[in-house]
Protein 1
Amino acid sequence: MTERAETIEQSRAASPAPVSGFSGADIPAYEDYAHCVHCGLCLNHCPTYKLWGLEADSPRGRIRQIVLVDQGRLPLGDSFVKHIDQCLDCRACETACPSGVEYGKLVEAARAQIEQNYRRPFFSRLARDFVFRGLLPYPRRIAAVARLLSVYQRSGLQSLARSSGILRLLGLADREKLLPPIDREFFFSQLGRTYPAVGARRAQVALFAGCVAQVSFSALHEATIRVLTANGCEVVVPTGQTCCGALAAHAGVRDVARSLARTNLDVFLGGDFDAVITNAAGCGSTLKEYEHLFAAGTPENNKAHEFRKKMRDATEFLADLGLSARLTPLPMRVTYQDSCHLLHGQKVREAPRELLRAIPQLELVEMAMADYCCGSAGSYNVTETETSLALLAEKMKHARATNAQTIVTANPGCLLQMRAGAAIHGTGQEVVHVMELLDRAMGKKS
Ligand code: SF4
Ligand code: SF4
């Protein structure tokens, strides 16, 4: 602990009244927030600051509020919760920060404090408990809810609900548009399978399959497996793997995130894989940062450290390995939307672009502000729908201006959001994952 941190600790201990508004586990660390020198260089990279122009909704303002609560000078109350909730956790401020402030760690610790020390309204508590504690950790429950949604989507109920105006009456019209289309067959049935490499084996990798992705992105998983095997990778889909815990960690529900992390660490470190691959940047960023969930020196932290060395985004892994499969020309104009948790969370910018440029006759045009959040941000588009849609409107303006027929991204959450954006704003653009486009260039239909 640094000298100043010790002084704060001593003053907390010496004061008759509690100095800090934080208590319990996962307190934002002085060592983390003290790096902020309040220079403000992050402000113009922050989507919520750009939207509202309010210091309290900027990275610097949010860090200041965290400091004030830690010093007992601001209550951990409604105002603090509102500004922390309104943060996308997109981490664009981290990329912009010259002082190396790890903002993601700070905001997630602040949310853990809110989870422990603040009473949210009844229905909010109910919904959060259901999603984070009762649903995401349980694949069977995810499958059951997905089956119900599938009936809603395929029976005509969805069309009826949309055309009758009932969704608008209930205030659910915008949220409903963001529902993922449910697969006819779930990916759960593929757990335990091994897909052999085509030709000489260049690597053996494990595929991380996720939670919701297994009921709504099976086609993407299959395309990813085809691309990996065509490029000489044997792909194992280990059984026993579970949700990565990203949504829980981002929401401050860290006990659940820890429990999921323990399971995944055991499963993926149980095999001698060259790499563990994910096609979901949001998951990848949390999987690579499991170390943040466990105290330094604990066995779990050591495991997380080992795991981090293996964990790779599919684009990052393939760009490093080098494509060996033959690519057929795709004469099309595409633009790439960075996923925040790939670019800002994992610092991967070039790999997806490099793979796209490798496709013959494909023209890649850069979109203005491609590094700016689309508004998906995990569950943000459900909890802060209005803000999410405002960011999406801005994003679609830039996407349309490229005249690209296809928008490519590297994260299922961004795919859903951008597809909804293309539909709402009538841009007529298709939205696909990098793996799906590579799969198409390898002659497969995806
Ligand atoms: S987070 Fe970084 S960029 Fe932002 S005000 Fe603090 S030091 Fe400056
Ligand atoms: S994580 Fe994103 S929304 Fe939150 S303060 Fe940083 S830049 Fe702004």
Protein 2
Amino acid sequence: MIYEVVIGVEVHAQLRTKSKLFCGCGTTFGLTANSQTCPLCLGLPGTLPVLNQAAVEMAVRAGLALNCTIAVNNLFARKNYFYPDLPKGYQISQYEAPICEHGWIEIAASEGKKRVRIRRAHLEEDAGKSVHVAGTNGSRVDLNRAGTPLLEIVTEPDLRSADEVVAYLKGLRETLIYRDVCDGDMEKGNFRCEPNLSLRPLGQKEFGTKVELKNINSFKFVKDAVEYEIKRQTKVLNEGGKVQQETRLWNIDRGETAVMRSKEEAHDYRYFPDPDLVPLQIPKELIDQVRSSLGESPVDRKSRLEQEFGFSEYSVGVITSRKDIFEYFEKCVIEAEKLGLSKMEAGKELANCITIDFRGLARKMNSRAGFEQSNTPLPLGHPDSSEYGEVWLGTLIPEKNLAELIAKKIKGEISGPIYKTVLEEMFETRRTADEIIETKGLKQVSDEGTIEKIIDEVLEKSPNQVAQFREGKQQVLGFLVGQVMKASGGKANPGKVNELLKKKLGEAVKI
Ligand SMILES: [Zn+2]
């Protein structure tokens, strides 16, 4: 039997507000347990929740960025369940009237671009955390996270493979980061994924029985878990069994999913409107204001970069992966244009610098700082980093300075090796290219006599290549140019080297 996989995804994204959803406690990660709590988020009697306006605005921004309709009339509901990290005995969420509905996000699927529909996105508060301390009796509860604002984003069952799930999650995370709604930090649990999947015979309309995978915090684990679950369910069905409706956990060490609990239905939670919170009316003006401040979407930015500069998918991906990187790139281009470069040539050179040279430098800095090169997050927040650091390399070099360096390279005033030396020095010292070239004695040598002398030495040491050139092998010219540049410490004017070398070789051929 051939089965079709049907997958929907729930994501809990923590909103980047300074304070919690219904009280003034802070949301900083990693502080001493229970230091960010107050009577309200501890669930003490007699307290009353007050809604955080910033959280509402962020939810509106996320919703608009995800092409959702924003509900003007919102209700908060109590979702009742008992858990040690939920002192109230209920979680405040939205049930019947979510703040965002009917959106979509576009992903790259194997058959081309595909729209994944977003059914709803609603505001809710997070629970605390049970801490199981090894070697002690029992567990402890940390309520610092209790009451932090989450946006739960739920898709329609539109996904059909593990790869599509990962593409959706990456696209969603990118959008939320881009809109300053969520920092996307998966290791801190600020972007948690819960795929649910079922199989049905190909061509059948009714859905099969759904299994939900709980709280996965890495794209790799999502892919592994979904692929495992597809195999497991296929086996169950092929052997004539029935898939049970349940929630399963992904066990990283064993590489398999295991039952966590049989799935509860919505009515098990006895949702009802929270009597402590008045219905929330979002003014239309606020929605319009957020909409007009949204600006260009990441998707539009990508296609603009492709059209304006003819960039590769990789370059576009890196440059648009973060707003600060994109803005840095754009400012550098503007500065380069002021120096008389065309947008296209400056853009191409800057893209190479940011996507390739910065990356090399980040690696070098990491290894110098004692970090392993493999699988260690780059602490300086390079786009390759799995953990988005606070500082990005670009903040170390002002846009104007980088544009000046790029201009010198394009105009042939410095060679490739000198460019690299100066760039590295710029990170270390924050000085301008001119200052570095001056103090390090890297000024270009254009004097013909000096260059000719170096050429003569190189030709003398390379009789084989000269002979090959005589036999008509033009390719050795590149090798010889390289040798001359090397011998000059990268300082010789490459244009002059080329010109003089051709002349000399021409003479050699005549001999
Ligand atoms: Zn509090």
Protein 3
Amino acid sequence: MPRSFVREARKRVGPKRERIGPIIERLQAEHADAGIALRFRTDVELLVSVMLSAQTTDVNVNRVTATLFEKYHRPEDYLAVPQEELERDIYATGFFRQKAKAIRGTMAMLLEEYGGQVPRRLDELVRLPGVARKTANVVAAELGEPQGVVVDTHVRRLSQRLGLTRHDDPVKIERDLQRLVPREHWGIFPHLLIWHGRRVCLARAPRCADCVLLELCPSSRV
Ligand code: SF4
């Protein structure tokens, strides 16, 4: 897209600080059902689900955890079986060797350092083996204490299209969003973008004519 066109488009929609409130409001009205698609009943199940969701779909994870969580309840249960058995039990989520190793390492640390509980602070969560910042952000947000903004492929694409960031690196995008999005919305905001990205602002062919953000978006193609 030519630079002059991008500049014109940004001028047309106005500064992002003025647009962010209406963007959140409209997305909340449009996707009232937005939320995490993973199924879990406890903090430990949440953590395991999010760890399993790397490089696969939430639907696939839910299929696996429907039986997994009947067998494994507490952190001790993941350590009571040989690693190969856990690998077989999570095989369908892909990358099963690394995931089994990470889950067992995490469960051992939960028992040794956190009394078997899932910690709530981001700096503690990222210490758990195999728990990167994105996983930690998702878990903290679901535990009701968001301390960052989750950036996945949908969040990155929509933040760029909406002119909320000029960056491509997830860490820099998160920094931009933390400055822009009011803290009370840090938990829900990624879900809103993810659901809008799946339903309307599709990667290849965004459905701008049906988009509630049309006049607020510098990338609209209508
Ligand atoms: S107007 Fe188009 S590009 Fe902008 S958010 Fe909506 S669907 Fe995406």
